[in-house]
Amino acid sequence: MKRTPEELEELKEVNCGCVRKKEMARSLLKTSSMSLGTKLLHQTGIALYNTSHGFHEEKVKKILQEFPGGTIDLQKEDNGIGILTLNNPNKRNAFSGVMMLQLLEKVIELENWTEGKGLIVRGAKNTFCSGSDLNAVKALGTPEDGVALCMFMQNTLTRLMRLPLISVALVQGWALGGGAEFITACDFRLMTPGSEIRFVHKEMGIIPSWGGTTRLAEIIGRRQALKVLSGALKMDSKQALNLGMVDEVLQSSGETESLGEALEWLKQFTEGPTEVIRALKKAVSSGKELSFQEALQTERDLLGTLWGGPANLEAITRKGKFCK
């Protein structure tokens, strides 16, 4: 049946309307399928706690600023590897209030470092970290103060853990208390001979609260974590390796030599295109924090940023897929 020009124009409008509705539906489906957790992992700089949780970051920062001492130093190499150093050797690299603030600043700097793909965290002068400076701890004497500090450090270390960089904690000397918690926020842990990891919190009348309890149970399992925490066990390099707390014991104990070993160890995981390494870290983080379906969706989205990209096309051209 031959249609009049008016009928054809009307049909065209109907078809266009259907297309628009389909596009809107697809957009809505894509938006609705992304949960809050997925959105958090897709964005950097998102904190766990804010004012809706009763957390007032600026107030905590003002208090921490009153306790100076030490620094957090960050060195970013041209090869995409960063070295984060806890530097307060007079107090065995214990966290002062200012160091806690500086740690957050350095994490934010790393979030914005698009060329980065690896990170080594270490302490100055052959000691990792002995926890928190007691002067700051004593000043934060109320339960409200303790919870506020807990939320501040959980925010910071979770952001560190979510960085699209493969991170390694280099444990030299002691990693005690908050220092032991810190290393659980890294992807891998290496120890030098003669080093020690110990969660001393029970002896201080508290529990690990910078996220260390939760992360430790994930790393070594609930039963072993309960033993380590309730016994305030001293873990030397051999015990830590047997528990799965650390990935390798290095040969060197010297500060310079062990850093060189750690850099060489990390290199095996960071060789390759930066965008691929960063996407791999994001995908694994999603599998850890999101539901199965959400993690699959994140894989899909990340693949979309790589497929047909420079690294993918170069690999196809080389035809060297798995032959090396």
Secondary structure blueprint with pairings:
Elements: H1 5-32, H2 36-42, H3 57-64, E1 71-76, E2 81-87, H4 97-111, E3 118-123, H5 134-139, H6 143-161, E4 166-171, E5 174-176, H7 178-183, E6 188-191, E7 196-198, H8 212-220, H9 222-230, E8 235-236, H10 237-243, E9 248-249, H11 255-270, H12 274-289, H13 292-306, H14 310-318
Helix pairs in contact: 2-12, 4-6, 8-9, 12-13
Account of the protein in words:
The chain has 324 residues and is α/β, with parallel strands linked by helices. It has helices at 5-32, 36-42, 57-64, 97-111, 134-139, 143-161, 178-183, 212-220, 222-230, 237-243, 255-270, 274-289, 292-306, 310-318, and strands at 71-76, 81-87, 118-123, 166-171, 174-176, 188-191, 196-198, 235-236, 248-249. A hairpin with a 4-residue loop joins strand 1 (71-76) and strand 2. The radius of gyration is 24 Å and the shape is globular.
Percent helix, as a range, is 40-55%
Count the beta strands.
9
Sheet having the most strands: 6 strands, mixed
Nearest-integer average pLDDT? 88
Q: Span from first to last CA?
A: 65 Å
Gyration radius over CA: 24 Å
Strand content: 5-15%
Query: Low-confidence parts, pLDDT < 50 over ≥5 residues?
Result: 13-22, 24-33
Structural class: alpha/beta
What is the H/E order? HHHEEHEHHEEHEEHHEHEHHHH
Annotation field: number of helices: 14
Q: What is the molecular shape?
A: globular
Largest sheet: spatial strand order: 1-2-3-4-6-9
